Amino acid sequence: SVFFDKVVAALSPIVAKDGKATLVLRSGAIFFHDHGVYDRSLGAVDARNGFAVDGAGASARRSFRPALRIWAEVLSRPETGLAICGMGMRDVSFDQGFRKPLTVYRGGHPLAVPLKGEVVKLNDQHAFLSLQPDDDIAVGDVIEFGISHPCTCLDRYRVIFGVDESGHVTHAFPSYFG
């Protein structure tokens, strides 16, 4: 739930009256956080006074980090201001907004200038990335995207790969969706 602060506020008095009860929140896919719907929702938690960690006030938005990303190659630059990437509705969630481009890699190295473009459309196999005039994007570049709504992204994969800080795969986590 993205309303865990409200759940705790509503149920804590009940739990406090029963010395045998423990309040446990099962938060589902927020374990993965995201760059979209959950990030916006945690901003709303902060606007409602944040939450407490070890009794001290904390920012929900700064306490969680997005942990799920998708990488896609730039396949085409058919016109100025547009890039087509190899990522579509079969690959990523799209029910809570489009993916956010985070980093562009060229030759395996991140480019220093952040990408300002945005995904404006998905079809079955491709993402249409609207670019700003100063976005430096070329065919063959790889773009790292943040996602919105992990649940409907995780169900597309049988294995989720974990990477270290340098991008090397260190784990393979099987997923079990129907």
Note down, in words, how this protein is organized.
19% of the residues lie in helices and 31% in strands. The chain is elongated, with a radius of gyration of 19 Å. The protein folds into two domains: 4-63, no CATH class; 69-174, Lyase, Ornithine Decarboxylase, Chain A, domain 1, CATH 2.40.37.20. It is built from four helices and eleven strands, in the order ααββαβββββββαββ. The relative contact order is 0.17. With 178 residues, the protein is an alpha+beta fold.
Labels describing this entry:
178 residues; single chain; 2 domains; 4 helices; 11 strands; alpha+beta; Lyase, Ornithine Decarboxylase, Chain A, domain 1; two-stranded antiparallel sheet
Topology record:
Elements: H1 4-17, H2 37-47, E1 51-53, E2 56-58, H3 60-63, E3 69-79, E4 82-85, E5 100-106, E6 109-110, E7 118-122, E8 127-130, E9 142-146, H4 151-154, E10 159-163, E11 169-174
Antiparallel strand pairs: 1-2, 3-4, 3-9, 4-8, 5-6, 5-9, 7-8, 10-11
Named CATH topology of the largest domain: Lyase, Ornithine Decarboxylase, Chain A, domain 1
Oligomer: single chain
Task: Trace the largest sheet across and list its strands.
Answer: 6-5-9-3-4-8-7
Overall structural class, as computed from helix and strand content, comes to alpha+beta
Largest sheet: 7 strands, antiparallel
Beta content comes to 25-35%
Poorly predicted runs: none
CATH class of the largest domain: Mainly Beta
Mean pLDDT: 85
CATH superfamily of the largest domain: D-serine dehydratase-like domain
Termini gap: 22 Å
Percent helix range: 10-25%
User: What is the number of E strands?
Assistant: 11
Written as H for each helix and E for each strand, in order along the chain, the element string is HHEEHEEEEEEEHEE
**Tally the helices: what do you get?**
4
The dominant shape is elongated
CATH architectural type of the largest domain: Beta Barrel
- Rg computed from alpha carbons, rounded to a whole number of angstroms: 19 Å
Number of domains: 2
